[in-house]
Design goal:
The complex is a heterodimer of chains A (161) and B (262). Chain A is α+β, with helices and mostly antiparallel strands. Chain A has five helices and five strands; from the N terminus they run E-E-H-E-E-E-H-H-H-H. Chain B has a five-stranded antiparallel β-sheet. The chains are: A alpha+beta (161), B alpha+beta (262). The interface between A and B is medium-sized, with 28 and 27 residues.
């Protein structure tokens, strides 16, 4: 075991890790940040998406040691400083962008990464960007509405299902 | 997954040294290697990460064309190659999904040489040069069949140099579950002829469709290949598509790529 240090949600942290420790396990087991979920563990589903140096990555397919020293942001870092929901989170709540909620941490992190790159995405761009995030409740429609709303666009204008 | 010693050198020279250890294997973006290790299909004793080597990062024009550092993620190629080689940038921007593109690298892709990966078709159709820790290898000599390349033990790709064609396009028939190419065709038209490389279709991995190259070198239009047929003998047959289906896709996608080339 080696001590691995990185910045998580703005705070410098360190925990013991093996070479094989995945970033998601470092976050969940090493740091107790269980908001990041493991869905498929095969980099298909996107429930484990976090930001590493501002880029969305699947934390089940990255070794913790490979991102030592990086700036990592997880779903726990998405709320506002006063504890209220962040813009993307609030939009997911307002538009019921979740059913069971298991995929939500990854959906929120991918959506935030999209909005950082592209502040006013079209419906098609949102659907395309969220290709690597799977919702097994199939609640995509409201997720897309939530992302439209989070970008300040009229979610009601989206094509009817 | 079996445990291993993790090493992250910051220079090519240190990586070469680290890879001389018994049981050492290079790690690039890990988007294929990690799943492979989880299944215990790979179990290195030492894993040498190449992602911290700054001389293996980035996209720039130079001698012989567009130089792409082997550890450059797909998302960076999609962005930074766009004004130099749009067809290559478009290919990079269509690999996997956004999170995969932020980690996966060109060097990792062509070192693995998955028979359905996108990049090998671009490297082969462009007649690119694969620069390794030891030598320079022409694309035609580099790819040697499914998951097989000219790389020796301990050797790794450091850079790929792409000559820029006059016109080119990559058309991928997406396998929506894996996001790999069910079949993909890269067409590149140079002043001295056309090169056509096909991925996802053959049991022998990426290959050049030379009959189409001859026809398109004489007449660069989708109609020029109308009379050709692709033999299904060596094509992959699985639950996603039969050999005959893939053979037909090769022809259809080649035509679409010619039409889309710019």
């Amino acid at each position: 075991m080696t001590k691995v240090t990185m910045t998580v949600n703005g705070t410098p942290v360190s925990a013991e890790a093996e070479g094989r420790t995945l970033l998601v396990n470092f976050l969940r087991e090493g740091l107790g940040l269980t908001g990041t979920h493991v869905g498929c563990d095969t980099s298909q589903c996107g429930a484990c998406v976090v930001h590493v140096d501002g880029k969305a990555v699947k934390s089940c397919t990255v070794f913790a040691m490979d991102v030592a020293g990086s700036d990592v942001r997880t779903i726990e870092g998405m709320a506002n400083a006063d504890g209220s929901l962040g813009v993307v989170q609030q939009a997911f709540q307002d538009h019921h962008g979740l059913q069971c909620g298991f995929c939500t941490p990854g959906m929120v992190m991918s959506s935030a990464a999209l909005l950082a790159e592209n502040p006013r995405p079209t419906e098609s761009e949102i659907r395309h960007y969220l290709e690597g995030n799977i919702c097994r409740c199939t609640g995509y429609h409201n997720i897309v509405k939530a992302v439209l709303a989070a970008s300040g666009q009229d979610a009601g204008a989206m094509a009817a299902e | 997954m079996h445990n291993f010693e993790f090493v992250k050198p910051s220079t090519i020279a240190d990586a070469i040294k680290a890879l001389s250890a018994e049981g050492a294997q290079p790690l690039s973006g890990g988007q294929t290697l990690l799943p492979t290790m989880k299944q215990r299909l790979a179990a290195p004793d030492v894993l040498v990460s190449l992602t911290g080597i700054s001389e293996m990062q980035g996209v720039c024009m130079g001698d012989g064309g567009l130089h792409i550092g082997a550890a450059t993620p797909h998302a960076v190629v999609a962005r930074d190659a766009a004004r130099h080689y749009p067809a290559l940038a478009a290919l990079a921007g269509g690999i996997g999904d956004p999170a995969v593109r932020n980690r996966g690298t060109i060097g990792g892709s062509i070192a693995n040489n998955d028979p359905a990966a996108c990049y090998p078709s671009a490297v082969l159709a462009s007649g690119a040069t694969v620069v390794t820790s030891q030598r320079r290898i022409a694309a035609d000599d580099y790819f040697q069949g499914m998951f097989t390349t000219a790389l020796e033990e301990g050797e790794f790709v450091t850079e790929v140099v792409f000559p820029i064609p006059e016109r080119a396009a990559y058309v991928k028939f997406n396998q929506p579950a894996s996001r790999f190419a069910l079949t993909g065709v890269f067409v590149a038209k140079f002043a001295d002829g056309v090169r056509v490389a096909v991925t996802g279709a053959s049991n022998n991995g990426v290959f050049r469709w030379t009959e189409a190259e001859d026809a398109l070198s004489a007449d660069f239009s989708a109609g020029a290949i109308a009379g050709l047929t692709v033999a299904a003998d060596d094509m992959i047959s699985d639950l996603h598509g039969s050999a005959a289906y893939r053979a037909n896709l090769v022809k259809v996608l080649t035509g679409r790529a010619v039409t889309a080339a710019r």
